[in-house]
Each structure stands twice: as C-alpha cells, then as structure tokens.
C-alpha cells in the first residue's frame, strides 16, 4: 500500500485550550457556529474517570470482509493488516479514530497493538466498535472510548481493515484525518480542524462567563440573571474579570 498522507498537527496551545473548555461547552458553542452535532454517539469511556484530552485524529476505516481482498490467513503477510499502518503513523499526543461500523463482535485492537500505541505516545482512541484482551488492556492505562469488548479478533468475524487516514464516519460524525478530537467523561467530539481556532476563541468567552456565573449561583444568585448571563449583569462580570486579572499580575 502507499504510505498514508501525513496529517497536519495543530499547535499544543490550541489543543490545551480546547481540552480545558471541555466537550460539553464546545459542543454547544460549535452548534451555534452552524455545525451539526460533533458528538460521536456510541463509544463510551472504558478507563477511570477524570481524563480529559485533545489531539489530532488519525483514522482507520473498516469494511465488510471480502475474500478476494482480504484472505483468511492474514498472518501470512502481517503487513497486509492495515490496522497496523495507522499505528505506524502515531506521534505523541495523537488520537486514533476508528470506523468499525458499530460492530459488537469484532475486536479492532488487542493488548499487543495497544501496547505499541502507548509506546509511541498515543493519547487515546475512539472506536465505533470493540476491542479485545480487555483484562490485559485495562492494565495499560490507555484512555479509550469504545462501544464494548469481545474476545474475537476482527477478521475472525465479517470485518476487514480497509483504509488509513481517509475520511470516516465514527459514531455518526464525519471525521477527517487531522480533525481535533476532544474527549472527557462526557464522551468524545470531533472538531473540524478548519473551525478549531474560532471555536477556541468563542468557547473561551463562554467558559469565562460561566466561571463567574457559577460563583454567583453558588452564592444564591438569580438563575434568570446569571445563566445565561443577562445583559444587565455584564458590567459586573467585566468588573470581576478585571479584578481577577489585577490579582494575577
């Protein structure tokens, strides 16, 4: 196969900014920017709570297996296993995002492949399908958002890896290689790379006034005044923000 086209990786500051805002606010803000839902429905957290990550997407596409394209003895030529080739592209901080067609029987990756992924510094995976070897995989401490678990390897069932770093559908969302994945306890979203800077700018404003509103609501403030922040409360918010800036420096 031809080597997959490399992705363009965004600045760390952009990724850190999106991660700090979180999937819930980002999903709301990007909807107001005219995008449909970016939430990848189906894959859920398979690791301890409290993990929040953002990184660029490498993609892997599965298709229904066909004998003339993908034979029975895949280990006769391990390099024909295209799911290996997405892992070869991994750099520190990357996500691997997999269209496994929502299959609940085919294990996309197991312990050995995921150990390699961790060794290369991968951040996490979002898989619209299953992994295998979970009793051992869980010890690797890799952030995973998946549909479930199975003892089957993928081509033991009716699935075959078909393409690397191509546009895919994951959890009903269009994902291009290089899009930014933000994932936390609420789930995983795919932010179009072209919208990421605008999303960070608008999301940061939302994030900031929500911090202020939370303080006022915990003090017993009026929900109608502070969520969403009413126009006549903006002056006090700006005064609070100025005081915060002065105290920091």
Keywords:
single chain, two-stranded antiparallel ribbon, 2 domains, eight-stranded mixed sheet, Glucose Oxidase, domain 1, 249 residues, 22% strand, 10 strands
Overall pLDDT, averaged? Answer: 93
- Note the run of SSEs as H and E: HHEEHEHEHEEEEEEHHH
**Helix coverage percent:** 25-40%
**Count of individual helical segments:** 8
Class of secondary structure makeup: alpha/beta
CATH class of the largest domain: Alpha Beta
Q: CATH homologous superfamily of the largest domain?
A: Ribonuclease E inhibitor RraA/RraA-like
Question: What is the architecture of the largest domain at the second tier of CATH?
Answer: 3-Layer(bba) Sandwich
* CATH topology category name of the largest domain: Glucose Oxidase, domain 1
**Total of domains:** 2
- For the terminal residues, how far apart are their CA atoms? 55 Å
Biggest beta-sheet profile? 8 strands, mixed
Extract low-pLDDT stretches. Answer: none
Shape: elongated
Number of strands: 10
Q: How much β-strand is present in the residues?
A: 15-25%
Estimated radius of gyration: 21 Å
Could you give a short description of this structure?
With 249 residues, the protein is an alpha/beta fold. It has helices at residues 12-21, 23-32, 82-88, 111-119, 134-137, 196-218, 223-226, 234-247; strands at 44-45, 53-64, 95-99, 124-131, 144-149, 159-164, 168-170, 173-175, 180-184, 187-191. It folds into two domains: 12-193, Ribonuclease E inhibitor RraA/RraA-like (Glucose Oxidase, domain 1, 3-Layer(bba) Sandwich); 199-247, no CATH class.
């Amino acid at each position: 196969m031809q080597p997959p086209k490399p992705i363009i990786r965004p600045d760390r500051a952009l990724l850190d900014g999106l991660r700090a805002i979180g999937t819930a606010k980002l999903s709301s803000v990007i909807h107001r920017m005219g995008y449909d839902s970016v939430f990848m429905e189906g894959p859920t957290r398979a690791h301890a709570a409290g993990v929040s990550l953002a990184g660029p997407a490498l993609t892997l596409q599965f298709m229904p297996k066909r004998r003339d394209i993908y034979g029975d003895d895949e280990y006769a030529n391990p390099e024909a296993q295209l799911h290996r080739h997405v892992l070869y592209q991994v750099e520190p901080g990357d996500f691997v995002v997999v269209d496994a067609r929502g299959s609940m029987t085919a294990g996309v990756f197991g312990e050995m492949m995921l150990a390699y992924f961790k060794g290369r510094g991968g951040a996490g995976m979002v898989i619209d399908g299953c992994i295998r070897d979970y009793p051992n995989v869980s010890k690797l401490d890799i952030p995973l958002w998946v549909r479930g678990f199975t003892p089957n390897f993928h081509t033991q069932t009716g699935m075959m890896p078909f393409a690397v770093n191509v546009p895919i559908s994951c959890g009903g969302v269009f994902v291009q290689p290089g899009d930014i994945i933000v994932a936390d306890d609420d789930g995983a979203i795919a932010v179009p790379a072209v919208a990421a800077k605008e999303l960070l700018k608008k999301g940061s404003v939302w994030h900031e006034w929500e911090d202020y509103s939370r303080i006022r609501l915990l003090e017993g403030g009026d929900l109608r005044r502070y969520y969403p922040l009413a126009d006549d409360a903006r002056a006090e918010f700006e005064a609070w923000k100025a005081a915060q800036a002065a105290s920091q420096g």
